[in-house]
Structures are given as C-alpha cells and as structure tokens.
Amino acid sequence: MKNKRTLMLSVTAMFIANLFVGAGTFTYFNDVETSTGNTFTAGTLDLKVGGQDDPNVVNITLSNMKPGDDTGYYKWVLKNVGTLPGKVSVTFSVIINDDNGLTEPESACDTTGGAGEGELGQYLKPGIHPDDIPDDVKPYVTIIARNDEEGWYIAEVSAEVDTGGTIGWGPKGWSVPSIVISQWQAGPPHPWGTPGLNGFGGKPYTYGPTLNPNDEIAFFFRVKMDNDLQRWDGTKWIDIDDNIIQGDSVEFNITFRLDQVVP
Ligand SMILES: [Ca+2]
Ligand SMILES: [Ca+2]
Ligand SMILES: [Ca+2]
Ligand SMILES: [Ca+2]
Fold first, then answer.
1. Which of 39, 141, 143, 246 is the S-S candidate for 106 at Cβ 3.0 to 4.6 Å?
2. Which ligand is nearest to the CA of 113?
3. Rounded CA gap, 133 and 235, in Å?
4. pLDDT (tens digit, 9 = 90+) per residue, 53-97?
5. Is 115 exposed, middle or buried (0-12, 13-18, 19+ CB in 10 A)?
6. Distance 104 CA to ligand 2 centre (A)
7. Partners of 156 in the beta sheet?
8. CA–CA distance, 7 with 26 (Å, rounded to integer)
9. How far, in Å, are 89, 96, 113, 151, 188 from residue 202 at the CA level?
10. What residues pack around ion ligand 1 (CB closer than 5 A)?
11. Is residue 242 a contact partner of residue 228, using CB atoms and an 8 Å limit?
C-alpha cells in the first residue's frame, strides 16, 4: 500500500516536474510524506480499592472480643484501572497490642504491665490446622504449601466453601477466598516465629497472577479466637487462662498496592 502510494506520488512529482521543465524552469525531484498519528503516551498504573482511589490504606481496630468470636471475612475488591499490567499486594503494618489496663481477673494471669503489651494479637488466630478442615469442605481443598513448625498452610479451594482460613485472594463475587492462607498457631512468640495475628505484622502478601488492566481480585481477611485459649509450645497445646485478653485491643493498617510488572 505504502509502495503504491509512493509510486503514485513519484509519478505526480515527475508530471509536475515535466511541467516546470516545459515552462523553462529547473527543479529537483522531491517527495515528502508526512506520517501522522504518532503519539507516545505513558501507560498508567492505578489501583482502586472497593471502587475508590482512597483509601488504599485501611485501619482496623479489634477490641471487646471474647473467646469464640469470629470477625467473619472482611473483603476488599481490588481493580487495576490503569493501562499497564501490575502485581497487587497487601501489607500488614506492625500489629499494635494494648492491654488497656488490667482487670482484676486479668491481673492474676497477665504479668506484662497493663499499659501496652496486650495479648489479644497472640490469640486472634487465625485459621485452623489442615487436619481440622471440615470433612464436607476437604474435597474442595488442595494444599499447595504447608509448614507445621511455623503453623501455616496455603491451599487452593475449588468451590465457594469456608475453610476457616485467615487471609486469601478470590473472585470478587465470592464470600470466601479461593487461595487461602491459614495460620493456626497461637500464643507468645516462638524461637522460629510469631504466632497469631501478630505474625502477619510487617509482612507483604502478593497475589500470584498478574493483574491486567480492568482485572479485579478480592482480598479477604478474618481472625477468630478459640473458645478456650491455648498456646503452642512447639510440640503441644498448653492451656492459657482466658482472662489474659480481657479488655485488650489490637490495631493495625492494611496497605494495598499495585506495582508495574517488569517484562
Ligand atoms: Ca486488658
Ligand atoms: Ca499484658
Ligand atoms: Ca484456656
Ligand atoms: Ca492482657
């Protein structure tokens, strides 16, 4: 097409040139073509959380909880509204624990002050041990990674069933994650890690697949407390006086971000 057009222009130019020659003037052949429509626009990377630009940071404060409580799944739908593919991740801030003073029964078992140093984050746990996944749910669960010492597993779930997990990613229409991370240990820090909700503090969790423009993915988060607080000593569960978390609170931020994928 281009060659054809070039040829036509050349023929036209020769015709015009001949006219000028015939008129007694002298000219050189020339042929100028202008290429139009060439624009260079920087791509965009833009994340919307729940349909909004702001906040990409959410603050969560958990207080007034008691043994047996379950927050249910919090859910945020994340959308790439830019023009470039990206990786989406969430990061938990350090989990801030506060004793909020010691009640009289609490003071009998809580030896850590009363101003700060709360224990709620240690016992807000988390998910369940993979062996405790309900029998009617198990057929839909494929465990893809597991670490019993640190007390977590990661699984893929093929149906919208509740595995009792802690955090995860899933389709925006689901009420539970389809990729679930379950952290099931509770109690004070171990030599090899920090159990409970505290263990999430300061850590990023990245969604594996690339989030292309207009793609959406939901992030889920939930914590619950056992009916009877216990701590894990590395080999077995040891009973803890449930009063240790009376009046305690935890506060933290979750930050959502989208990073450009480098090809
Ligand atoms: Ca307290
Ligand atoms: Ca305390
Ligand atoms: Ca207990
Ligand atoms: Ca306490």
1. 246
2. 2
3. 20
4. 766 888 999 999 999 999 999 999 999 999 999 999 999 999 999
5. exposed
6. 13
7. 142, 179
8. 22
9. 13, 11, 24, 18, 17
10. 99-100, 247-248
11. yes
